[in-house]
Amino acid sequence: MKFAQIALRNLARNRRRTALSLLLIAAGSVAILLTAGFVRYSFGGLQEAIVRGGLGHLEVGPAQDLAASPLERSGFPGLAEWEGVRARIEGLPHVLASEGVIRLTGLASKGDRTVAVMGLGVEPERERRMSFELKLRVGAYLSDLPPAEGEDGVVLGVGLARALGVQPGEVVTLTALTADSTLNAYDMTVVGLISTGLQDLDARFFKTHLASAQRLLGTDRVSSLLVALDDTERTQEVAARVRDRLAGQPGLAVADWESRASFYGQVKALYSGIFWFLGGIVFVLVCLAASNTLLMAILERVREIGTLLALGTSRGQVAAIVILEALWLGLIGAGLGNALGLGLAAAINAAHIKMPPPPGAASGIDLRLVLAASDFVLVTALMLGVLAVAATLPVLRAVRLRIVEALGHV
Q1: Which domain holds residue 389?
Q2: How far apart are CA 98 and CA 100, in angstroms?
Q3: What is the model's pLDDT at position 25?
Q4: Burial of 243: CB neighbours in 10 Å, binned 0-12, 13-18, 19+
Q5: Parallel/antiparallel/unpaired status of strands 183-194 and 153-157
Q6: 195 plus 90 within the same structural domain
Q7: For 293-318, what is each residue's pLDDT tens digit?
Q8: Coil, strand, or helix at residue 207?
Q9: Exposed, middle or buried: residue 388 (CB in 10 Å: 0-12, 13-18, 19+)?
């Protein structure tokens, strides 16, 4: 305790130099905090956007179909007796709901305009129970009840509607291959325009009711079942339970959202690399600045250290004082940085800053920061570690002083 008090008092000897060091440490702490907050928000936001955007937490379907990515599947719907499978899944804890979906590929036509399209046959009422996000731009969404034959509706991506030159209320013709490899065409009324958030997908994407999709393809099967949970953190736990419950039905597989969204891992790796790169720069800058501060302090107190050694103070005790000075710098600087970082994060979140859309995206994203209590603890521990490393050279300089030379130092 005595050495800690001495070390703290030593910092006040040259207040300007100490203040500059604390400012740099605080700035480094703020940079790490804000970056961590942005990365956490980006990961969490992207994760929920993937799940709530229509991918679901889990997908259950034929194993050969789930081996391909959702956008690459073009085979005929192969999941039979799917309603019984769904009932068994929905009986599990933490399952909000499950919906049958059909993946469609074909052509959409209006007059002399024809566009290759891909879309989904969905159950709107269950989508709402699953908390799927709906980005409706114009018009209305699909009705909850299955439409009568001849009254089928469709919602188009805004880019697709633009390419076909249609608005809500007009009729488009969807053409697709049936089970016997013949072409079937259905006239469907455009009830609304939606956005997926991706420009390329908006130019080809549509949704229709599951009943309409089944009529178009001439089948009562679905491509797969999407499952939504009440907590994303329980994805693996529920996936294991679903596999156990469906163990008696060979040929079925269960895939979680992360395995079907490979780009999430790529984005996560990119952001993590940026975070560690920034952390490395902060480490070097803080380490150099703190080491310089401590080394200057040692050079200014050579005779004092020599006197302490002459009076019987051990070299280990001298080293402890220098290390404690470094740790005080790290602790105070990190505390200031944590307080400043918390205030800046709150101000940025309150400002509701809108960032430009990423490449290929249709809309901008919010700039928000999500800080956890562990971030402040980790930043403090990091700064203490950095300052401990920075103290290495000054400590070596102090303990290697010879008493006679130190007492005669001018």
Answers
A1: 2-50+264-407
A2: 7
A3: 87
A4: middle
A5: parallel
A6: yes
A7: 777 777 777 777 777 778 777 888 87
A8: strand
A9: middle
